[in-house]
Amino acid sequence: MSLISYMQITEKRRRSHPPVGRAQVLSAFDDAASNVAAGRTIEKYITSQHHCVSGLSVKLDLATKTLVLRGTVRDRAIRMKVVQCCQQVIGVAKVEDHLALIEPESLESQYRAVKPGAR
Known about the structure:
Elements: H1 3-16, H2 22-29, H3 32-48, E1 53-61, E2 66-73, H4 76-87, E3 94-101, H5 107-110
Parallel strand pairs: 2-3
Antiparallel strand pairs: 1-2
């Protein structure tokens, strides 16, 4: 392919595709399908990090840059890791944490009673 034919092909492609304005690009990211797709991607990332969250639901609103977390976790350490993981997502300004904390079973149910002198 010669340089002239390359330039002709490039010019035809440029003319057939008009430039996209900034407002058009931004509106494409604000629609509901983009929000759902981004939320699912974040859910997959959280599960890939082996954070045990049952019933995980991530809702993302790119217009307001808000991420909403729902689900249940076993302890506060996992909860904090998940929230910090979501805070590091580019484009997220606010994380609303609606994760429920499952209270651990009482200590009585975890340990058996030992009588004095028993081995």
